[in-house]
Batch of 4 targets.
Target 1
Amino acid sequence: MARDTTDQTPLGTLDDMAAYMDAGSKPKEQFRIGTEHEKFAFFRADNSPVPYFGEASISALLKGMQGKLGWEPIMDGENIIGLGEQHGMGAISIEPGGQFELSGAPVETLHQTCKESNQHLAVLREIAEPLGIRFLGLGGSPKWTLAETPRMPKSRYDIMTRYMPKVGTKGLDMMYRTCTIQVNLDFSSEADMRQKMRVSMKLQSLATALFASSPFTEGKPNGLLSWRGDIWRDTDNQRAGVLPFTFSKDFSFGDYVNWAIDAPMYFVVRDGRYHDCTHVTFRQFMNGALKGEITDWEPQLGDWTNHLSTLFPDVRLKRFLEMRGADGGPWRRICALPAFWVGLLYDDASLAAADAATADWTVEDVIAMRDSVPVQGLKASVAGRPLLDVAREMVGISRQGLKARARLNGDGQDESIFLNTLDEVLAKGTTLADDLLGLYHGRWNGSVEPVFEEYQY
């Protein structure tokens, strides 16, 4: 996330908080696609990580991008920590370990989001090349230890770094050593949100399997196909994972609000300063828990917006839905991930088909799949079915949804072309992580160093 919100509007009742989220509902013709992707910055000379400070650094990349794009700098104290397009049409941010992220503009078609990503990478390479910096698209840092990984000077990350070891064993790895591709999608009503949340929550671990690309840690195989997926199994379970109540036929915005306010907070922002609030839940905050600790202790709308951004369920609900299951990956996957979800969720017939195909999956089935996918990938199963069979069915449904959308590029091709990457995965029945392990044990001669050359942006 590039920028935390400051909105001093007094926070209302729980119903008002639910209504704030419901206000994201929009007519189907106004649905948009917002794609985010992260990548690891490294020095091509020795494959070492890029620090924040210095002539060749993360801050230098941000300043160079600011000069090229003309976007507004986002500051934390005296440090530039991101860039925002002046009209809200995109942002650049940095993750805790220096992972460089584009949060794309809300666009109408996958052709546009793919073009946007390619343009971003082209401009970034132009800035990075003279600095000796390149970028790696994988789900997990394949080489660097946690101690070797740089830390970005961002206040919310300082608070999270202190807090994570108190609530899980893998939170720091999540922050500093993982990358993802995500897509943000709209809903038209509470009922539409409910169906999309139910389907995508059930299928999020399928995306983890399809996009698994994190089989290495500290230079060696880690015994997993998606290390990133495994990390999320014990990061901060009060605010992460599968939310069973979203499977209910009556699931509502209010249900999500009631879950969210019982999660511990990370911070509030007052006068540009971050205050550590990890000792209270948002509900306690609403009941006056910070009175006497900070000035302006009464909850504001900006506090609620920021709190929603610090919750990490497999599918995150704000004024839109965020698909959070996939590892980062090579550039073609930046287009494939939103294609998979747009095809499933933005066509009524495809959404209904995916809902029907997963209707008998229980919460226990979904959690068991989530637990097995990091190790087994597409060899896992769900509700008694091989996951590879489910993957083929769901990609097929997605393809039909994309064809039905009939959004064509200049060559007359519809958006289903962006599923070609997944077709290759399904044809082989193996993940990118499987392929990487094959290279490690074969042509790479037991070294992860070649991954920086062969999978760089």
Target 2
Amino acid sequence: MARWSRFAPDADRRLVKGLHDGDDDVMATLYDVYAERLYDYCMALLDDRRAAADVVHDTFIDAARRAPRLRDRGRLRPWLYAAARRRCMQRKLQLEPAEGDPLGSLDFLHREALFLALRHDLTGDDLAMTVGVSLRRTEARLSRAQQRVPDAKDFLLEAPAPVVPAALRHRVQHTGTDPELAGYRAEIAARGGALTPEGMPRQPDAPSHLARRWAFTSVGLFTTLAAAFVVLLVMNPHLPVPDIQWPGGKPHTSRSPRHHPRRSEQADVPSAGDQRPTTAPQSMNSRTPTPSSSPTPPRRKSGVLVVSPASIRFRNHDTMATLVLGARGGQVSWTAAASSPQVTLAQAGGTINDHGQVQIEVTLNRGLITLPGTATIMVSGGTGQVVPVSIAWDISVL
């Protein structure tokens, strides 16, 4: 490969000052120092001589207008590489490595990191600023690539550098200094995209600082909101949690049970309920009134209420379960009520014929944050029979 001279930050500062002052001779010096390097990099990304020459040309014209905006004028080298990279990223990249390339086992970003670090001596902050990501991520990417291809340095240093087209220097000098091409130079700079607050070209494949700041802010706001809800719910477990309308989504509401696919785990069907003191609402009379003009029919035999399962547990984010009520030995009139407002029933009462069944959908109304809890559903039969069903649920967030 070509024996490129070592970088000198002080020389870069003088070049940037000359560009800022509008010195026409600086453009030729800038080209002589960086043209071969940038052309080598663009050829590695594009594998197209004409496209690589166009990118190098536009990069120097862009630098003449916008490189002086750098906060640290000693960073001209990564600025040029970053500007060329952005323009290459907007074209068709050579993503597939050549046959026999030892770097072929790496993806594009890891190959690029090795190429810039080992062949172009861009490391540390310079490499991070070129590709537009944090120093930590850049170092991790480079370290993984070197571990997977330990002999990459020999291959990259021995590869010959492509020859820069002879006419490119005159083309850059002409475009950069001709007064009649001022509008063309402004158009080229505009195609270079936005600059970061440090004055570096922003990379299209790297998130902006505003996106990262918004992500951290969102996490902080959510954590604060979650902590506030936890405190309120600990102070009052039955505090109603309001529905929240998320951007682009629908509010959390208790939908009709028959439209919800989730059901909680259910236990085996227990035996007929025990006789216990009634604590639920009064049961309905099982007698059926008849018109006075008709003969009084024989009284129907009151049956036994059978409830299944004896307990329900809502796990993870479950919100729906089914309670099965049955009648044995006669008709049963029933009522049901839950001890917690977080548990609602699709039906509160009815009548079941002998050997008949009715399915009652049970809904757990979860909020943004739901703490673990318990409740009881009291199911009462027509003869004062009361069957308790225990309800329990796990903690859930969102």
Target 3
Amino acid sequence: MPLTADRKKALRTLGHNLKPVVTVAGKGLSEGVLEELNRALEDHELIKVKLMVADRELRHQIIGELCEKSGAELVQEIGKIALIYRAAEKPNARLSNLLR
């Protein structure tokens, strides 16, 4: 289900103070990166991903692949940082960035 404009605005507000928990570097989307991404999304639901890629078009492509492979939705992209969201199956109130 796509995020509404109001929901994206609320998520951007919550994500403002978050630090990136996943970094995609020169090797791109490896299995380890995808596993860590899925673990972080299941734990926190709303996360920032840092992309250490210089080419803007390649960054857009990697973000699209990240969202597609993880089932997450892009909330916001600013420079080399992407804010993505995926609802957890069993949210943990101590870990979730939405339930605090």
Target 4
Amino acid sequence: MLAVLSPGQGSQKPGFLTPWLDVTGTEARLRWWSALAGVDLVHLGTAADADEIKDTARTQPLLVAAALLAAEHLPLYDVTLTVGHSVGELGAAALAGVLSAEAAITLAGVRGREMAAACALEPTGMAAVLGGDPAEVLAAIDAHGLHPANRNGAGQIVAAGSLDGLDKLAAEPPAKSRIIRLQVAGAFHTPYMAPAEAALATVAAGITPSDPARILLSNLDGTAVNHGRDMVQRLVRQVTAPVRWDLCMRTLADLGVTGVIELPPAGTLAGLVKRELKGTGAPEIVTLNTPDDLPAARDLIARHGMAPSHEPTMQFRVVVAPSAGTFAPADDLAEGETIRVGQVIGHVATRQGPVEVAAHSGGVLTEWLANHDDPVAPGQPLARIGGHS
């Protein structure tokens, strides 16, 4: 199984889009997207310095544009899964078919401007806590009135909040940890961003999304999202909610992902995956930064994706949990059996009673992804259904 990752803020580098301008049509596409985003994406991706592209209002649409530009040159019909980090979720949602490219770019422009405006309301910041016991790190963050804005796995938790709280955390770091202050405008993914969430919600309400055409994971809880409207709501909520990249990587492992491509500017997420998913089951990784990397990315897709052939191709859909609780698969269903659209394949036991789990597409029950009495979260993958196309 192959996953495509869309990076978030902090991964940008001056001039990183310059090599892509040699590809026919790239500049025209960036000019069109610049009109939607309200920033000059050509200038930002080629001539702007580090300080200019550190500006949240500029960085966010630039990153989404970069991911979508590169992805246009990949055979995405062979890609099974997409996931993005923070603003990268907008790119991932577009690649999964939930949003059009234009909608993703427009939302990134609004998101960036509104988060920058929210940062200006009160002095706040962020700091990475590297190492230490995760429980102790989270306790220290809470003790200083801060928020765990990003839980990135691989021994990295990002604290966010008041500058005074960050100073105190740096002065009293948790045991066996070190603190690195991040050069960002404010406390992203915390309640400080509430005005930006409200502003983004008003724009997002006018979008008509589609349901994902491939597995799309959410930063909220690392689960697969089946419905477009649900994903748009999650994208809005994520402005103030923590990024649970650790849970996204856990899902990559649970689903048996064997190949990973990180879109430009690539490197940060690939590094986290490499450190977290180690051992014999570690996925093969390609970082796609320039057009010169496209052959390696296409080769990885050919070997780990669902390659086209003259024979019918298996297309997989994931059935996810409708609510939190304990999963119980239907007693009379076994892997290999045919499932019809709308068929109840089990239920989730909740405090309010059992909630039925129904298949949204027909096909063959190829694999249970959760077992009897497993605790499940909303949106967690429960079963994989395959069908010929």
